Amino acid sequence: MRNSNGLVDDLERLASELETQDLRSASFTSSRTSQTRDRLVRIIRAYLIPRLTNPDAPLCVVFAGPTGSGKSTLVNSLSGLEVSETGPIRPTTKNPVILASGRARHHFENVGGVECEVITGSAPILNHIGVVDTPDIDSTAVEHRVTAESLIDCADIVVMVTSALRYADLVPWEVLRRAMSRGTPLIFVLNRVTSGSSGAITDFGSRLSEEGVEGDIIVVPEHHVEVGKHSVPALAVRELGRRLVGLTRDRDRYQREIFQRVLDSTITQISELAAQVESDREWAGVVDAGIRFSFHDKAHDLDMSGLVTGLEISAAPPGGRLRSRRWRRLNRLPSGDLVELEATLRCRLITLVESDLRGMILRDGELGIIGGTVEDVVRGTHVITSQAIDGWLDMVRGEVDEVNKRDRNLASAVLLSTALDSGDRQALESLFGADGDVLIERLRLALLDRLQVVYTQTADHLCESLAPVSYEGEADELAARLTRVVARSHFADA
User: Fold this and answer.
1) 60, 184, 424, 447: which sits with the fewest CB atoms below 10 Å from its CB?
2) Is 284 left (phi over 0), alpha (psi -120 to 50) or beta?
């Protein structure tokens, strides 16, 4: 560990490489992939590298436990000082408090980015260790648990403290698994055991075995704590103190073992993360193709026949210019009515398209696993949907420029209704002659093509939320960094 410059450089490059990984596609299999990545980076930078660059730093012993487990009382009792306040108001320890020797104070003022209150003492146990009292891991204040977990990620030893009443609680076991996954050595303390709670010792041991944890449990019996005192008799914590002191007798060897355990665990987790991300990216490619297939030509399936309602235009007479002229005169449309018709159609078209997009996303099981909400995606398409429809309405207005000025409003209404499968073909012929059918077909295709752009861009948006924008070879480079770390660590060990 004293000749480890190469390993330090490799670890720093590995952390940097890990930070550059785009994990957006990892939302397929785990919403916690990003947190796992960030935690591994923190372990590298806040524990592994500092341990290599400063091997003489004291061992960091973190006491963690649920509310009311008595960990602050144990810390006070081990040190003989009132390090942490105890009491009936929970959680009592709001900020991490660390007991260390005066010469080691600077090592513990900031642990893994967490500012700590350091109290110095001269107890023999502090010659080689610093004792950390964390906020309660099951506190209702989320930041307390986050702080406790950050400190656990920087620990050389974790003392998991629970009581005969709290050992079965869910949250402590979640934190225990987190500490185990890191490779941290663990000491288990069952505190406040009375003669009537001896069965808790056996049950707690069975639960540890089920989690794959080996080792005995240090039992601290219930003691009456005098008013104004925050510690129990020294005899009650003698076994715990003996265990901690024992770890420091061959400190260098023990530190190397801890470091190697955490390093091996970190490498394994990064390898698993890299494999998972690569698998996610492959799956994202499959889903990408599925999304694009689902949205391809989808606009042409829209049923727009019911969009035009309330338009009062009498049926056009067959043949005869005079009769047609009279029909146009009787059905001339005020400008205000045309404006209202266009506004209504615009609103209904937008609603139809957005409703169809929403239904597609909800129906497609593959799309249901995309991050964000359906409404977020649909809301993002509103502008391009509006622009597509507005452009089409302008196109319709342009088609009536050659029509008699007095008949243009009527012609616009007929074009709109007929293009949306609600109009009178005879009325179309009366206004535009034999070319009316060709004109309507062109307008209808123009509308569908514009709307298809909306569907295509929506598919693009969904696929972008899946597929990471990463440089070629990103995963390969991460794997290469891992290989260098493994090789360097084995070489240093040899």
Assistant:
1) 424
2) alpha
pLDDT digits (tens, 9 = 90+) for 23-38: 655 554 455 788 888 8
- Chain centroid, CA 389 distance in Å: 36
Residue 97: CB atoms within 10 Å:
21
Which amino acid makes up residue 111?
A: V
Distance CA 454, CA 357 (A): 10
Over residues 325-349, the pLDDT tens digits come to 888 888 888 999 999 999 999 999 9
| Boundaries of every domain in the chain | 56-249, 279-476
Q: Are 295 and 456 in contact (CB under 8 A)?
A: yes
What's the distance, Cα to Cα, between the start and end of the chain in Å? 11
3-state secondary structure the chain: CCCCHHHHHHHHHHHHHHHHCCCHHHHHCCCCHHHHHHHHHHHHHHHHHHHHHCCCCCEEEEEECCCCCCHHHHHHHHHCCCCCCCCCCCCCCCCCEEEECHHHHHHHCEECCEECEEEECCCHHHHCEEEEECCCCCCCCHHHHHHHHHHHCCCCEEEEEEECCCCCCHHHHHHHHHHHHHCCCEEEEEEEECHHHCHHHHHHHHHHHHCCCCCCEEEEECCCCCCCCCCCCHHHHHHHHHHHHHHHCCHHHHHHHHHHHHHHHHHHHHHHHHHHHHHHHHHHHHHHHHHHHHHCCHHHHCCCCCCCCCCCCCCCCCCCHHHHHHHHHHCCCCHHHHHHHHHHHHHHHHHHHHHHHHHHHHHCCCHHHCCCCHHHHHHHHHHHHHHHHHHHHHHHHHHCCCCCHHHHHHHHHHHHHHHCCCCCHHHHHHHHHHHHHHHHHHHHHHHHHHHHHHHHHHHHHHHHCCCCCCCCCHHHHHHHHHHHHHHHHHHHHC
Q: Is the pLDDT of residue 320 over 90?
A: no
**Rounded Cα gap, residues 127 and 245, in angstroms:** 10
| pTM, rounded to two decimals | 0.64
Dihedral sign of CA atoms 193, 196, 197, 203 in order: positive
Which CATH number does 56-249 carry? 3.40.50.300
